[in-house]
TrEMBL record, chain A:
It comes from the Bacteria. This is Cytochrome c domain-containing protein. It comes from Pricia antarctica.
Automatic annotation (TrEMBL), chain B:
InterPro entries: 2Fe-2S-bd, 2Fe-2S-bd_dom_sf, 2Fe-2S_ferredoxin-like_sf, 2Fe-2S_ferredoxin-type, 2Fe2S_fd_BS, Beta-grasp_dom_sf, Diverse_Oxidoreductases. Pfam families: Fer2, Fer2_2. This is (2Fe-2S)-binding protein. Transmembrane segments: none annotated. GO terms for molecular function: 2 iron, 2 sulfur cluster binding; metal ion binding; oxidoreductase activity. It comes from the Bacteria. The lineage of its organism: Bacteria, Pseudomonadati, Bacteroidota, Flavobacteriia, Flavobacteriales. The keyword Oxidoreductase applies. Keywords: 2Fe-2S, Iron, Iron-sulfur, Metal-binding, Oxidoreductase. PROSITE patterns: 2FE2S_FER_1 (PS00197), 2FE2S_FER_2 (PS51085). It comes from Pricia antarctica. Residues 1-78 form the 2Fe-2S ferredoxin-type domain. PANTHER family: BLR6218 PROTEIN, OXIDOREDUCTASE WITH IRON-SULFUR SUBUNIT.
Amino acid sequence: MNVKIALIFSLLLFAGLIVGFTDSVATSEYTAVVYNQSDSPLPNRNFDKMMDVLTHQRCMNCHPNDNIPKQGDESHPHNFGVAGGENDHGFQAIKCTTCHQPENNAYSGVPGAPHWGLAPASMAWEGLSRAEIAESMLNMKTNGGKDHKALVKHMTEDELVLWAWQPGVDASGKLREVPPVSEAEFKTAVKQWFANGAVIPSE
Amino acid sequence: MTLALTVNSTSHTIEIADENTPLLWVIRDMLELKGTKFGCGKAACGACTVHVDGEAVRSCSYAVKFAEGKQITTIEGLGDEKNPHPVQQAWIEEVVPQCGYCQPGFMMATAALLEKVSSPTDDDIDKNIINVCRCATYYRMRKAIHRAAALMSSLPLPESQNT
Ligand code: FES
Ligand code: FES
């Protein structure tokens, strides 16, 4: 019995060797694609990077659709019934600046940046798709009259926008999460997206 | 560093190592004005409310460097026993405090509100006075705020429900 099994295995091994020698593996013709942003094979890459930032809670928390700022990584409504009020900077005597100063406060964990406040209702992004956010952002009737040049300046230079990458610590001393794209990459993506015509990809 | 600030109309020059020290600690520990209270240290409760150039500010979350050259008012500067501010007077008349700890902050927040809105509605009060009172004296505070508004204007005094 063992002799028979050994014979069968020997025959299979021999057959395999014959096939292996006569039918060798084909050489791959694959060559690595060198990624170059200027002629990107992914035309939506700049848009995607930009939107990865704009839809992050560090930005979205202050672009609400209900005049109520959101807080934290889970975007809960601002404590104590705080709202943007008529001018997006609070009520008559309890304003954003009652607690938020021009820079983060490491002792209290209260975030801060110049002109801290809500985006106007016309720039409410909460609940919009990426394409809708972009449309709202490009619309001079809703964006505060900004043309493309002004938008690029706002998005790449405004201290409150750039706060997203310096968000400081929260009330428990924990560093706040930053957007998933670095500040430098975001700025490049914004500039390139506008330079390429600010095309909003279809959804 | 050296900082110049004016607290309750008195000029002070202070030497401080950390310019980010909360204004609250300068007021309490350097200027020895103990009326302003520490509650949460997180700009949440309002016990530390003072006025900076007439605006209510939570001093536990206000770096002293921002107070340079500004006019600061604390509860001691609002008024005193002999000459109480209408808000303090209304607080006395409505017997608002229980333990009292939160009350200076509430009175400062109220004084700031009445400077902007001379006759606040309940809705104005709900929106603007968002300090925290652990003893839940909110009901008496609301009455005191309306009374203070009346004291500050020519409006007739509201009927006190304590009498
Ligand atoms: S101690 Fe400043 S808000 Fe609570
Ligand atoms: S009176 Fe006690 S906390 Fe307000």
